[in-house]
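Issue 218. Parser rejects a valid record. Input:
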Amino acid sequence: MISKLFRKRTNSYFENTKMKPLFFKVVELFKEEYVWEKISAYTQENKPKYKFSIYDNFSTLPSITVNPFKNHIQIRIKYNKDIKSIESLRKYGFVDTIYNNKNGEGVLYLTFNVKNQTDLQKLKGVKVDHYFNVKTNKNDDNDAHYIEDLNSNFYIDKDIVVKARVGQGRFRKRLIEHWGQCQITKCDQTSLLRASHIKPWKDCLDGEHLDPYNGLLLTPHYDVLFDSGLISFDDNGKILISSTLSIRNIRAIKLNQKAKLELSEPHFKYMNFHRSKVFIK
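Output the parser choked on:
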């Protein structure tokens, strides 16, 4: 969740400009379309910004920052050898821009200015996740942390997006439309349900990340069981239970051993992947 302080400073910054709606449209575009380990909202000198980050096991890979100005919204990507197909980004309209860091040293960025809806449409064509060599780690830390340094007037909201999933907002909406409820428990209170990928998002190919047939809508304990490979389903939708799950624990968590999903053909390739690569027999 976004803190009251961030909202207050955001409203103050945009008080005399019409850029606020465009700023949040750009933010929502990046939230819904791409793969991120962390999304941070922060203000620097009372200016709101969003930072979209991805990681490998050792370092932070290039991140994308959304920076508002009075007449445009700037997308800024720090130049890095891990960015693939830089020339393709330039064809979409990204330009080389040098900004000085706090030490006065020039740092090269790729930038794209969004001034109107036309520019926003151009930005939608850029598959940003295709331009990074990404080795992701799952990060299921659900805690939001707020830090404010009054001396530097720097404030940051960390981990606003707390589950490392692909386009989680859009993907979740599609699963709710498709399933409507948890097919095992029949719970239909969506605030209690999790959008779970059948084929893990880190293994997905183009077009699979947001495919509603690559997902299940599950209550939390079944989501954990499925995600960790302790249960799976055959093509008839019948539940498969890992031999590593003891009878005692099956009873303790009241696992429905007769559970059955209503799967259709588009689900089969994803569920086959789950059975062969994720499920612990």
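Fixed in the parser; the record now loads. Residues 20-33 form the longest helix (14 residues).
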